[in-house]
Structures are given as structure tokens and as C-alpha cells.
């Protein structure tokens, strides 16, 4: 069943008020993955949230070739994400394996915008091929340049093709580390990105949106208790909640 597209006015109003073992070949260890970041705390950039700095040396977790082939052989899931996924990916893979036996291969990279995640999707599609299910957990770092997001959605859907299902976790990113004006911009830009997802869903019947943002907004206390810094889920409370939403979507029939 297609999900209903939320009312745009409601998104902005509510959003502003809310102001398995994964085999890894390359992983920079970090107990607390680096958050999304701006180049300086005083630069608001063209959209109010700042300017994304270099993510080349960000913390990352990328599955081995053996794990990728295992996923393809067993009808598992590819995951492409950012620092939230670096933090939560292993727990998610374990939960999914326990739920329906699905294996997961991950390509998660802190501070990476969606353009980089889609580049990785293209690389894996070319090098290995794609499974039936693809999980995109990317977008938090796109609050710095929201207009570019829609094109990346289109790229991802084109790479996946019509015969695969793309699951996309939507965005709630309001950093506690910045001032009130920039926080308001973060919320506005998060909602802007989410609306682009809903617009894309009108075009692509195989796009499934996992509504993390709405789940948080329904009960405002969740924004405090389930996010540790306004972006990353708290552990284990927020991590378990977000991962459960994802697993429910991936295993729905």
C-alpha cells in the first residue's frame, strides 16, 4: 500500500515546533561517530545551516567483498548511510538477521552527503550487482544544501531500477551544538528534504519512506530522549526505536 503524502504546511509547522556481525574491510574506530558539521560555527551558508566541511576522513564502516557476495547470494540488503548508520549499523544488521534471517552489507561514512552515498551505490551496482532491497539512510548532511537532494533521489532510483525496492529513512536533524537561529534553519531544511522524498514517492512506486521524523514528532519528548545531540539516536533507546522502524519496513510483505 502506498503511504499518504503528508501535508506540507503540517510538516513545517510541526517540525518548527519540535525545534548479525557486519564484516568490515575499512573502519576507523570511534565510540561516538562525528556529527554532521559546518566549516565554521559562524558561517550560516546560503541556507542557514552552515557549510558542509570535508568528509573524506570521516569514520566509516564498509563491508568486505565476502559479505557483499553473501548478501547477494541470500537475497539480503545493501545499506548506504552516514554517521547515524556508522553508529547504528551493526545493531541494525543483528536485529534484521534475528527477524527474518536477512544478511546486510553496509557502506556507511560519517559526514557524507547523499551524493557520496549514491556514488557508492553506483560503485557497488557496477562491481557486484544489486540485491532486491536497498536501504538508503542518508540525508542529514544535505541540510547544508537542500536543493541538490532531489537529483540524488532520482539518481538512486535510476540505479536501482524499477524491479528493486528502495527504502529511505527520512530526516530529523536539529543540532544542539548550534544557536537557535541555525537550529531553526536545520529544522526547515530537514523538512525541505523530507518533502523532496514525498515528491519522489509520487514518481516511484518502489520507493518506501521510513518515517523516522514523524515518529519523533508524534510525541515531542522523543526529540529529547531518543536523540542524543539533535541528530544521532541515543543508545540504546533511540537506536532501538529507529532500527525497529527500519526492520519493520524491510520485512513487511
Automatic annotation (TrEMBL):
For this protein, the parts annotated as crossing the membrane are: none
Name of the protein: SGNH hydrolase-type esterase domain-containing protein
Residues of the signal peptide = 1-31
PROSITE patterns attached here?
TAT (PS51318)
Q: Which domain of life is it from?
A: Bacteria
Name its species: Kribbella rubisoli
Q: Which InterPro entries does the entry mention?
A: SGNH_hydro_sf, TAT_signal
Alphabetically sorted, this entry's keywords are:
Signal
